[in-house]
Structures are given as structure tokens and as C-alpha cells.
Task: structure prediction
Amino acid sequence: MEEKITVSIIKADVGGWPGHALVHPELMSVARKELEKVKGKLLIDYHVANCGDDLELIMTHRRGTDDEEVHRLAWETFETATKKAEELKLYGAGQDLLSDAFSGNIKGMGPGVAELEFIERRGEPIVAFLMDKTEPGAFNLPIFKMFGDPFNTIGLVIDPSAHAGFRFEVWDIYEHKRVFMDCPEEMYSLLALIGAKSRYVIKRIFPKPGGSLPDNEAVAAISTEKLYEIAGDYVGKDDPVALVRAQSGLPALGEVLEPFSFPHLVSGWMRGSHNGPIMPVAQRNAVCTRFDGPPRVVALGFQIANGRLVGPVDLFDDPGFDNARSLAKDAADYMRRHGPFEPHRLPLSEMEYTTMPKVLGKLKNRFKSVK
Ligand code: 13P
Ligand code: 13P
Ligand code: MG
Ligand code: MG
Result:
């Protein structure tokens, strides 16, 4: 049997430079150095990147998803990078490392994880999406458009190998439950769930049974770790990542990128407490400065050749996305003018995990009943 390849992105914010703007280049060097040590051994290949203040380890290997050694490598790399962050007194050094010791799987320990294991096709394009200043539900709209919306993905209409549609794995992140839904058959029910993006998040996409691609190999995966649920206290939004395979029975590369021509509103931004547009940017522009944002998304494209990451191509470094950036800037102006008012500020239910309850707590005794 053909050996499967695994692509893993594991990411963490281990210190911002300055504030929550960026990853310091020395942290990137530390990460490269650590991963280089195991290239050709544990890992086939790797690429270290950042989106804003999030350090992203993109790795290929043959050990499957949830592999203890690969997760340990990522954890220890983040620990080493944290030491450097502490030395430079970067902001929130070690912010996403919520445990003192590695316990076999990095999930639930702070960092975000997206992994895909599959048999490499003759041509294997893959896109790593990296977001900063938002949460996993920010991927619901664009992933739905890629795999469920014929106005975005013409392949669903004209490509016989994509015509059957796709299967969506949706997680209820409060109840820790999941459901599989087929699209287009169950599209309206699916949208009933994923439109509520703070609770129901798309975790994976699968091909339908009977098609040209194996129905047990996910073709897209999104990191869904919820920091506040782990920590019980506010430690920053869980800026998400996603992996999406493209072409030959899947959305074409351009269909995978097209949803980002609309800078939809996501939650995150300043103090993880505001709604704002997500702006698709080139890697060099993933610097979150205006009101600590607006939220960003970077897309790095690779061809995979026997596990080798041929790339990256900085896919939003394209004037074709200028209008999306322009609209995002206008939307940012519009939202900002609400100041501390909803719906710029997140609804109370989502502010529960910020520092705001402490402020409200102080006012508690001032309230007298109204007769
Ligand atoms: P090419 O003809 O450039 O291979 O493109 C085919 C395609 O499907 C573009 O989406
Ligand atoms: P990060 O989640 O990117 O660290 O941002 C936190 C924040 O408070 C920004 O204002
Ligand atoms: Mg940060
Ligand atoms: Mg961040």
C-alpha cells in the first residue's frame, strides 16, 4: 500500500513584538533551528511562518495525525522560543503554553493544530491559511463557500468529480460533540449550525463516498482549540489555522482563495473582544497594528512532492485582492466608529471570558431593585 503523507500545522503565540503585533525574527530563527535538527528524520520537510504574533510550524512527515513525537517536537520548539521571548522580554512570553509539561498530545495545552493525512496525488496543491486576531469560527464562512457554494466554486456545477458535493464535520465546541452533514442535501441545516460561528465550527471536510477520492481522508482541516475553555481565564483568542487541499475533484486553487475576496466580519481584534473585517494580506503585511488589527489572513501555497514542501507562494500577494483589502479598511472604519458599543464590541455572552466581568462585578452592589 502506498505510504501516506501527513501535513501538520501547529501554532502558538509565545510572545509579541511589540505588544501583540508580530513574531520577532529571532523566534522564527529558533524555530527553524529546532526543526532543521530533525529534517530527514522525524520530519520530511518544514516551513516556519508567522501571521501577526502567531508562530506557525508547517511540517510534513509519515507518522499520521496526533503523533506524540511530532507534537512533542512542536511543544519543545515553542518552549525554546519562549526562552528567547523571555530574554527579549517580548509581550506575553509563553502566552499559549498553558501547561508546565508535555503530556503526549499538544491538544488542550494551548497551541492550535490542523493536520491532514492522505495519499499524495500526482499533483498535490495545498494551502495553509494562517489567521491572527480572530477565532476558529472565522473559517466557517470561507470553508462553506469553498466546499458548498456553487456561486463560489463552479467546480461543484461543472466538474463531475466534485458534483456530488462534500461531507462537513461540525463541532459544538461548548458541548464537545460533533455531527457529520452532507452538502448539498443538508445545506440549510448545516447553515443553521455554522452561521452561529462562536459555537459551531467546521472541523474537517471529507469527499463523499463513491467519488474519485477516498472518503476517509479529510481534504480540509481547521484548528478549533478554545483557549478560554482550557484556561478558564482570558489568555488571548485562539487565532486559528487551516489546511486545504485543492484541484482534481476538489475546489481549484482559485476557488479555495475566492471566498477571501469578501472580508467578512469575524470576532477577535482588540483584546479579543470586537467584531471586525478579516483582511487577506501578503505575509509581509500580516502586522496587526490598527487597534491591534484588523484581523488578518495569510495564504501560503505549496505543491507537495514526496513530502517535500515546494513553496511557499504568498497567495494573497496579488492585486486581485486589493478591493477586498480596501473594503476591509472601510469596514474597519465603520465598525470602529461604534467605539465601545455592540455590535463592534462582542455580545455579553462572549465577553464572559474577558476581563469585563471583573468590571461589572464591582458595580454589582450599586444596583437596587426597581419597584
Ligand atoms: P489550466 O488550464 O491553467 O491548467 O487551469 C485549469 C483550471 O482548472 C483553472 O482553475
Ligand atoms: P492575540 O490573540 O493575537 O495575542 O491578541 C490578543 C489581544 O489582546 C489583541 O489586542
Ligand atoms: Mg499575542
Ligand atoms: Mg495572535
The first strand starts at residue 5 and ends at 12.
